[in-house]
Input
Amino acid sequence: MNTEWRNKLYFGDNLEVLRDKVPDESVDLVYLDPPFNSKATYNVLFKEVEGTPSAAQIQAFTDFWEWDEAAARTYHELVTSGDAPVALIDLLQGFERFLGHNAMLAYLVMMAPRLVELKRVLKPTGSIYLHCDPTAGHYLKILMDAVFGVKTFRNEIIWKRTGAHGGAKRWGPIHDILLFYTKESKYKWNKSYQAYDESYINNFYKFSDEKGIFRLVTLTGAGTRTGDSGKPWRDVDPTKSGRHWAVPLGLLREIASDVEVSKLSTQEKLDILDEKGLIYWPPKGSIPQYKRYLDPNKGTPIQDVITDILPISSHALERLGYPTQKPQALLERIIKSSSNEGDVVLDPFCGCGTTIAAAQALGRRWIGIDITYLAINLIKNRLVDHFGEEILEDCETHGIPFDWESARELAQRTDIPRKEFELWALSLIPARPKGDPSRKGGGDKGIDGIKFFIDGKERSPHKVIVQVKSDAKPKPAYVRDLVGTMEREKAVMGALILLYEPSDRSEIPAEAASAGFYHSEIMNKDYPKVQVLTVKGLLEGTERLKIPQIAPDEVTFKRAERINDEKDKQGKLDV
Output
């Protein structure tokens, strides 16, 4: 393994990151779960301390696309640059004629160059799983055919993502689709198993002997043959029944690993099975069958319809409140099947980091990319909760401000919403975001973030209101507005985070001081009700939010569950 490798988390547009940061043929497995073009707004919802739904929420992303100048420019570059595969150019032009300039075409145009880059970064033995739903899945399938090639398509996998679901004048929509492609014909594949279904065992494994319980499986296939497989064995002639011998080669290789099976005749292969006691001879002399014993340690080979991995329930410890979060068991099955320990797993739409957490737990290296800071911060917190603080020592985070100058650049960027700067600034305390995603520009009623603390024997949470300001000349009115918001929201304290430091003659410190103090009974100490903090001071560690926090913060954010010791050991790599 490359001893210089460090896992990587990127904040930014995945197309730019893929082009600039990820080398050719450097990734073993790609899983992507992009927005589905379902025209829905997805919000991260939080829970209050007592478990009730919280008014605090923040828009994670809007799954809505429109044909605009950016989409038109991307389309033009794809079909005229000469860099895209010819089949992809032809397909996009066909889509334009068929669909017209609408949201669906904009979505497919967004996906096309990303798929091209993902093929570039995959190793020749690599695989890619594209998670989608029926809204655009059929178009994405053709798009994948154009980029990866029809012959590299391996499976359309169905995952039952929910239980009964009512549909108005249609069948209830309860599944997602995963499209499984490989880069070339030779690829990594580890035979994986899923737990036996009890009804399956009861229905099929009806026989037993000293070796265990078994089912009977036919040794013949339909149709006659003129070679070995059509000749008699032990006085049994399959041709008389219009059939031929069909020996289970996989089983034969397992039980006769010291024999070159390919050089044996069909009759010699059957002899080995009989010598091993794997042939069942019917008492009335009909065609024999072979015994398939139940192996409780294996289960059934994984199938392309997944019904044994349930969606994340509303009360599951795994649930972090992120929209479209997938169960970690689903990602673990994919990663185990299509990669080995030490391989690199890439998720370009990594959301709350389920792929990242699964890869780390299974001893894989990983790269995660997301365009929202909310996701990046959630992933970092999840990794720490799962594996401990030391996990961040082996992880590089790119695109996140590390000093005042880079913080200013983030605040001034026009290619991403200003809310991303606010989300980053809130993480310096840390506080959780608040906003009304239905209103453009925030609609947060003067609240950018909220933090809670426990003070007193009654264990009831106290609220801290947080505002973030990035203008070059902060105004004293900001403090007055914050105090008014605190009174309206019944918050005991408030914090104002400023990108630019107030001038020497600023009235801001005086306004903050006039708000008075909050007295902590449990600490027997006074804390300023309004605290003015600067980005520079928070980054350098010279400033911090002063609240009566006597234990780790368990009330502001939901914590991810700790990975057990066995998975912990798997997640530590010798790098």
Remarks:
- The CA atoms of residues 136 and 305 lie 19 Å apart.
